[in-house]
Amino acid sequence: MKKRNPVSITILAVLLIIIVAYYLFVQNFTYLTSPLFWGTVFICVIIVMIQNSIGDLVENQKFLKLSEAEKSAYLEEKSKPYFKALYESAFKKQSVSEEKDILIDHGFDGIMELDNQLPKWWLGLFYFGCAFCAIYMASFWLTDFAHPVKEYDDEYKMQTAAVAEYMKNVPQATLETAVFSEDNVEAGKEVFQTNCVTCHGEGGRGGIGPNLTDKYWINQPEKTLFKNVFWMVENGSPNNPTMQAWGKNGVVSGNDIQNVAAYVYHINQEQPPITVAEGGAAPQGTEAHWEK
Ligand code: HEC
């Protein structure tokens, strides 16, 4: 007669499975305070107890039918501590005298095949793997657990939030503090390509917006070219809403305005203007005399 697992071990195993399953579906441990979780635990424990009681009854009935020798062998087996017995059975090997019982009826060249039992530790791992696979597959199909797309989304949101947080705290250039630097021209070019090129054309040659490479300017609120560009991007055009207030509207940060102003300064002062003959827009406004 087979020895049964103690009920405490079964309850522990069931608890473990419930915890793992809940974790896979909820994906954190907040469920530990939920009545649903404890309800599941309660019901499962009751079911295990009932199953155990039925097992007890069946065991008693079977026990009565054993011979005296079998009874004492069984009782001795049963009195062994659970984990000791488990350990021993995990590494149990057939004795030579038992081999004839498990000899399979085919062999070759004198080599015979034995129907050995699989080691218990191997079977245990195998069953655990099967159970885990089933729970994992179920949670994969039914929930967001371990979904690469979902994980990517979460990660992406976290990173953009971190970037936004950083941008909020990093000191931003203002009209007063902004200075021209040759180092910002490259970064400014990128800002220009992203936000401005649709209206001001490739290289600032003009289009919907004025040519930014020539000496003629509609708006001249500031005395230096660099600050003038900063002012325009920060505040937009007072007369023409097509040129929006990129800075005030929060579309472009202070540091990016500083960069793009450096780029516009660069194409206006450090490069020849793009003339009408070269595909540039015709001059608009009046000639500007920028202070250095
Ligand atoms: C939707 C089209 C549009 C976009 C995008 C745009 N602008 Fe403009 N921009 C204009 C228009 C139109 C004007 C002329 C405003 C006026 O008439 O007062 C202008 C004017 C300007 C001026 C002043 C030119 C002058 O002669 O007074 C600067 C400098 C400028 N824009 C820079 C930029 C920068 C830098 C960006 C990108 C951050 C940008 N603009 C994006 C349409 C645009």
Automatic annotation (TrEMBL):
<dbReference type="InterPro" id="IPR038414">
    <property type="entry name" value="CcoP_N_sf"/>
</dbReference>
<dbReference type="InterPro" id="IPR050597">
    <property type="entry name" value="Cytochrome_c_Oxidase_Subunit"/>
</dbReference>
<keyword id="KW-0349">Heme</keyword>
<dbReference type="GO" id="GO:0046872">
    <property type="term" value="F:metal ion binding"/>
</dbReference>
<dbReference type="InterPro" id="IPR009056">
    <property type="entry name" value="Cyt_c-like_dom"/>
</dbReference>
<dbReference type="GO" id="GO:0020037">
    <property type="term" value="F:heme binding"/>
</dbReference>
<feature type="domain" description="Cytochrome c">
    <location>
        <begin position="183"/>
        <end position="268"/>
    </location>
</feature>
<keyword id="KW-0812">Transmembrane</keyword>
<keyword id="KW-1133">Transmembrane helix</keyword>
<dbReference type="Pfam" id="PF14715">
    <property type="entry name" value="FixP_N"/>
</dbReference>
<feature type="transmembrane region" description="Helical">
    <location>
        <begin position="121"/>
        <end position="142"/>
    </location>
</feature>
<keyword id="KW-0479">Metal-binding</keyword>
<feature type="transmembrane region" description="Helical">
    <location>
        <begin position="7"/>
        <end position="25"/>
    </location>
</feature>
<keyword id="KW-0408">Iron</keyword>
<dbReference type="GO" id="GO:0009055">
    <property type="term" value="F:electron transfer activity"/>
</dbReference>
<dbReference type="InterPro" id="IPR032858">
    <property type="entry name" value="CcoP_N"/>
</dbReference>
<keyword id="KW-0472">Membrane</keyword>
<protein>
    <submittedName>
        <fullName>Cytochrome c oxidase cbb3-type subunit 3</fullName>
    </submittedName>
</protein>
<feature type="transmembrane region" description="Helical">
    <location>
        <begin position="37"/>
        <end position="58"/>
    </location>
</feature>
<dbReference type="Pfam" id="PF13442">
    <property type="entry name" value="Cytochrome_CBB3"/>
</dbReference>
<dbReference type="InterPro" id="IPR036909">
    <property type="entry name" value="Cyt_c-like_dom_sf"/>
</dbReference>
